[in-house]
Amino acid sequence: MNDRKHSQRKRPDPIPPQEDLYADYYPEPDPYTSGGAHLTPEERERYYAERDAYYAQRDAYYARRDAYYARREAQEARESREPEEWEDRGESYEEAPAPRPRRRTDPRDYEPEDDIPEPKKRQTRRRHRRRSRRALRRTLWLLLLAGLVLLLMGTAPVRNPGGAAREPGHSTILLAGTDRGGSRTDTIMLLSLERGERLRLLSIPRDTYVPNYSSYKLNAVYGAVGGGEAGMELLMDETAKILGFAPDGYALVDMDVVTRAVDILGGVDYDVPQDMDYDDPSQDLSIHLHAGEQHLNGEQVLGLLRFRSGYADADIGRTAVQRDFLRQALGQWLRPAHLRQLPALLSLYQENVTSSLRFRHLMWIVRVLIKADLKDMESQVLPGWPDMVNGSSVYMADQSAAAELLREYSPYKISP
To answer: How many helices (H) and strands (E) does the chain have?
Structure first.
């Protein structure tokens, strides 16, 4: 036995087990899960202050508990040492030097607090969500900045093979939509965009008369050469003969793509002008809408745009609804809140739209649409009358009545 004198070391009182100091996480639900969306701005500020205080108190609680675990594990490690370790030094456990006195831990310091019910794992998830929200906000700001830069880089589409004098900042786009068969363009419109001026939208009835085609109708031109880019170029040529000038670009949309685009943008509020009920199994078409203001999803919008059998003037009535819908929808969608849907829309455009427009042209169009007052957008239908040609019902364009109207749409300078 070592001759050195050692003060008697008594075994320390064991630290009470965890369950004696802590309940197994209180079952009360988190009172701050709603995010405050249901509150007024004043109430929300108070809500956030109370929530932050709650989180701070809970973090302090877990810090004290972790310190408790560390002390308990250290004591258990000391108590588990084999007696031989002490005998090798000529000591016994009872005769070992007493450690430096420690302040006894008051169990009350570690008692769980009534208003801290969540476990540490849930706390970690909440922190992660807060970091994710901050990262999302930064990303949205960067996208907004990048979008603004791209908008400033946009250029107007111009197609002017003859080199005629044009009005600066004025371009026209031929918009077409195919039926579900994909061979006929049942929707044909001319969009006129003037930088800093009003927008104009002209509907060209699908039955507008064109010679040299089997049905004598404009909507048959696209499919006459198999569709695609060749079909759209041919439609551009025939439309130029009717208008007196060639549009600067085109965009062809399968009407089913409209459904997906509307759903990506979260639908649209629209005042349906009348009850619409129509079923055509051959076209996989089922339209059932009630008149009145309502929120429409993509499938309902498609039915609205295709319905025509209930109008007194058939296709002319449908084109009026299409123009009005487009004006109101653009007013709802061209808002900063929809910026985050831009990547999905661009992907949909690239994969499903046949167009002569490049990315820089799209950015110019978006810039003009954002700056324009959509409430004042002018919309007309090409003047004309119904007629019969070789047993085919057609729409005859009234060139003399249309001449004055088309001057407003033309991007070319008019000689005095």
So the answer is: 12, 12
Q: What is the pLDDT of residues 62-84, one digit of tens each?
A: 667 677 777 777 777 666 654 55
Kindly tell me the burial class for residue 301, based on how many C-beta atoms sit within 10 Å of its own C-beta (0-12, 13-18, 19 or more): buried
- Domain count of the chain? 2
- C-alpha–C-alpha distance, residues 147 and 22, integer Å: 53
Q: Which H helix or E strand runs over 63?
A: helix 41-79
Cβ burial 118-142 (10 Å sphere, 16+ → b, else e): beeeebeebeeeeeeeeeeeeeeee
* Strand runs labelled E in 310-398: 353-355, 378-381, 384-389, 392-397
β-bridge pairing 292-296 and 285-289: unpaired
One DSSP character per residue, 147-207 reads HHHHHHH-------TT---B-TTEEEEEEEEE-TTSS-EEEEEEEEEETTS--EEEE--TT
- CA separation for the pair 407, 410 (Å, rounded): 5
CB 330 within 8 A of CB 175: no
Following CA atoms 179, 342, 236, 241 in sequence, which dihedral angle do they give, to the nearest 10 degrees?
100
**CB atoms near residue 171 (< 10 Å):** 24
Asked if the structure places residue 339 within a domain, the reply is yes
On whether both 276 and 378 belong to a single domain, the answer is yes
Which residues, other chains included, contact 355 with Cβ-Cβ below 8 Å and sequence gap of 6+?
249, 250, 251, 252, 349
Task: List C-alpha distances in Å: 325 to 46, 204, 405.
Answer: 42, 16, 22
Task: Say how far apart CA 45 and CA 43 lie, in whole Å.
Answer: 6
Q: Using one digit for the tens of pLDDT, what is the confidence trace for 363-381?
A: 888 888 888 888 888 999 9
d(CA 285, CA 279): 6
Q: Which domain holds residue 10?
A: 1-117
Taking Cα atoms as reference points, which of 81, 101, 77, 99 lies closest to residue 6? 99
pTM for the model: 0.63
Residues 105 and 196 in one domain: no
